[in-house]
Amino acid sequence: MSNMHDKVVIVTGGSSGIGLAAATSFAAAGAKVLITGRRVAPLEAATQGTNAMALVADVAIAKDAQRTIQAAVDAWGRLDVLVNNAGAGALLPLADATVDRIADIFAVNVIGPSLLSAAALPHLAATKGTIINVSSTYGHRPVAGLSHYAASKAALEQLTRCWALELAAMDIRVNGVAAGPTETGALTGMMGLSADRAEAVKSDERNRIPLKRRGEPLDVARWILSLADPAAAWVTGQVIAVDGGLGLI
Ligand SMILES: NC(=O)c1ccc[n+]([C@@H]2O[C@H](COP(=O)([O-])OP(=O)(O)OC[C@H]3O[C@@H](n4cnc5c(N)ncnc54)[C@H](OP(=O)(O)O)[C@@H]3O)[C@@H](O)[C@H]2O)c1
Predict the structure, then answer these.
(1) Which end of the chain is more exposed for a tag (fewer CB within 10 A), N or C?
(2) CA dihedral sign of residues 62, 68, 73, 74
(3) What is the pLDDT of residue 25?
(4) Counting atoms of ligand 1 from 1, which one is nearest the CA of 186?
(5) If you average pLDDT over residues 116-133, what whole number do you get?
(6) Domain spans of the chain?
(7) What is the pTM of this model?
(8) d(CA 41, CA 64)
(9) What is the dihedral angle through the alpha carbons of 45, 50, 56, 61, rounded to the nearest 10 degrees?
(10) Residue 2 has pLDDT above 80, yes or no
(11) Which residues are catalytic?
(12) SS3 helix, strand, coil % of the chain, rounded to 5?
């Protein structure tokens, strides 16, 4: 298990799915963890009986970026790891694309992580800390009907590489994890599918994934932790696919 003793970690979108699994794993490894989300109830449920701290903050709201970073620094005096996990997506055929719908996706997947990372910079420089961005198989594979989600994740993957280069002089490492289809509430939640449609998509994905199963949140969280681990000190600018082989086909 990683040694995160006394490290301070922020996980955006930490109240469910991959973010919750990552936050729980960081806490189990000894880290002090701040999780964010838009809704109070899931945040309270996620932090009940733990040492983790919850903050209601929306990655799509620019002024929440500084507030999020400051909350962790005020509480614990430092910041070691920023996990840009919260994401937005929608089935959005090109014919239905509008300014607002495209902007909503990019606000969470591109602009929010940029502002959070910028606000985190002085603190990460002080600790030689690290940024981990959560992308998707569709950040590097084309998919019909999800083009703006896919393009926003492609942008996040390229930001990961550019920031790695730019921030190496400050000893800040930047990496990404590109998750394949994972058992979370995302299909009926952020993607807005009906329960029936979600089941059909899941079944199709299980058949297409070379390892023949959808991922569990911990499958992905483990790699977020590994990239944050001091043992990964010489790894930067990488986006690791954790996807059962889906990206290979
Ligand atoms: N599940 C998959 O199959 C899959 C595959 C590839 C990549 N991913 C990526 O993995 C990441 C996590 O997805 P997930 O499947 O674990 O999702 P999830 O189970 O739906 O959880 C999303 C989390 O993010 C929070 N959130 C959503 N929008 C937010 C915002 N604007 N600001 C702050 N918090 C926000 C949610 O809480 P609130 O709703 O209360 O805000 C929740 O805590 C996303 O970036 C997603 O694109 C997921």
Answers:
(1) C
(2) positive
(3) 97
(4) 20
(5) 98
(6) 8-244
(7) 0.98
(8) 19
(9) -120
(10) no
(11) 149
(12) 50, 15, 35
